[in-house]
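Dear colleague,

Thank you for sharing your sequence with our group. We've completed the structure prediction you requested, and as agreed, I am returning the results in plain text so they can be pasted directly into your records. Please verify that the sequence below matches your submission; if there's any discrepancy, let me know and we will rerun it promptly.
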Amino acid sequence: MGGIPDAVISQLVSRLMPLSRDRLIGGFPDALDKTPPSDPRLPTWFRGRRIGKRCTWVCASIVGGCILLPYNCLLFTQGYFDTYAFPGLSFPFVSMVCYSTPLLLSNIWLAFFGNKFTIESRMWTSNVGTASTCVAFILCILASWTTSREDVMLPITMLAIAALAICCALMQSAVLGLAGSMGPKVSAAVMFGLGMSGIMAFAMSLFLECISGSGNDSGFSSMFQAASLFLFSVVYTIASTWVYHCCFSCRIQEVVEVLAALEEERASPLLARARSLGWTTETLRADDLLQIQHISQCSVLCAAMQQMWVQAFNIWLNFTVTMAIFPGVMHAWAPPRALFLQLLTGCFQIFDVCGRYLADAIAGHLPPSKLW
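Please find the predicted structure tokens below.
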């Protein structure tokens, strides 16, 4: 069959056979719509127990919140870095460049080479890396308070920001890819966690402001709040790691099935392309296999971009406008008091979440033309 060994064809057909055409085309059933029976891949003590929709939604939200919580903590600590640690060095602008550039490059690299790594390895790497980076931020905050070596501490802090961006890209690719394979409700739960991470950081900053004394703009108070925020991020990351690895990825059967299928596709690019094209054993032909064999990863990505370039441009424009103003320009608007800067950042986080759900709420009552 044009150079494809018979063993490869047989293996491909056997793997496609158990999958229905609805699953190939429409993705996996939504985990929130189904509570499956016992599965031998689940832990022995857990077989026969049932995971409800609420538990699955909560787990997905907690895991999603871990993606952006350290970044949001960084936003709420910029007042300390800009005023006390590195005054006059344009920390808000420089830090966002050091964060956005590695994040962009990492996502581009993962788009082409991400399948070389399992989701499990990406999650462990990003979880450990995120927690370690937050510990590094705490050490940088304490060191910048006790020393005046800005020429040393600024590059170290920027390296920590770049490391945080890389870990964020790893976690984004793993969590959002997994959630997208499980259905829109799980994806919505993860997006809810993303939005709530900003509100959690805002609430924590206000709580620390109350502890240290309302309106207290002393350097020690600001340093204490910054270190405490990243300590909170470390604790949350550890909790999220436990939720994912000890509950979400092994105790919910639907997640186990999706992870197994994604790992199967990762190990067999030919199988992944056949599934992505919606082919089953009934529709599989020899010419199709020959066509799949000669399709490169770059061609697949280009074909996908041709179909979604409008929405991709829309997302790019949205983030470009956002990052052009927030948080760099916003810092110039804030009065010279740390509390006002926290409130401005918190207002953005709150209305960011409200905007996401407001659009979803009114989408069912307005046609697309009027919604845009």
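Summary note from our side: The longest helix spans residues 150-182.

Kind regards,
the structure core
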